[in-house]
Specification:
With 199 residues, this protein is an alpha/beta fold. It has one domain: 3-Layer(aba) Sandwich (Rossmann fold). 42% of the residues lie in helices and 13% in strands. A 5-stranded parallel sheet has the order 2-3-1-4-5, sandwiched between helices. Helix 2 (39-52) crosses helix 8 (181-194) and helix 4 runs parallel beside helix 5. The termini are far apart.
């Protein structure tokens, strides 16, 4: 059932005015990669560094969002797409609010990530490919999910029996299996600085 008889109400405060008040631009930092690649760990560390610099931030983490907003969704391809669509819409609202928004989702399909990119203005979607080889992800396996997938307890697990489509042209590639966390954080902060998101 789709909503009908609805009208978009314009605010008197613009996104640009909110950004000016915050003294920084807003954007979505979209962390994507395999389970265990380090998306959540990296997004938390980046947020802490941004916060220390006076940047208004918020993290939308995959598991956290599934505890509330998306708790009615499973992991079928259709539900994954709807999961990302909802997160995209929420991210768009945060960007409009002038907040630097960090999202940590496997988001395995390019088409879904591109859908979110189209929701926001140019340069407001920063795709961060958290690259880590499957062997290392399985070795880390912080939630024990790979082992369950290998044992057949979880079906449709990304990287095992469901695909992961790596970004074709991400703004940033962070290789968490080749460099320490601090270097990865520094890489992302540097990108934001040189591209004028904050001073």
């Amino acid at each position: 059932m789709k909503s009908t008889n609805i009208t978009w109400h314009e605010a008197q405060v613009t996104k640009e005015e909110r950004q000016k008040l915050n003294t920084h631009k807003s954007a979505v930092l979209w962390f994507t990669g395999l389970s265990g690649a380090g998306k959540s760990t990296l997004s938390v560390a980046v947020e802490k560094e941004l916060h220390n610099r006076g940047i208004h931030t918020y993290i939308l983490d995959g598991d956290n969002v599934r505890h509330g907003l998306n708790k009615n969704l499973g992991f079928s391809p259709e539900d994954r797409t709807e999961n990302i669509r909802r997160i995209g819409e929420v991210s768009n609202l945060f960007v409009d609010a002038g907040v630097m928004t960090l999202t940590a989702f496997i988001s395995p399909y390019r088409e879904d990530r591109d859908m979110v990119r189209e929701l926001v203005n140019e340069q407001e979607f920063i795709e961060i490919y958290v690259s880590c080889n499957l062997e290392e992800c399985e070795k880390r396996d912080p939630k024990g999910l790979y082992q369950k997938a290998r044992n057949g307890e979880i079906k449709g697990f990304t990287g095992i029996d469901a695909p992961y489509e790596a970004p074709a042209n991400p703004e940033i590639i962070v290789e968490t299996d080749k460099q320490p966390l601090e270097k990865s954080v520094e890489q992302i902060i540097h990108y934001l600085e040189v591209n004028g998101y904050f001073n």
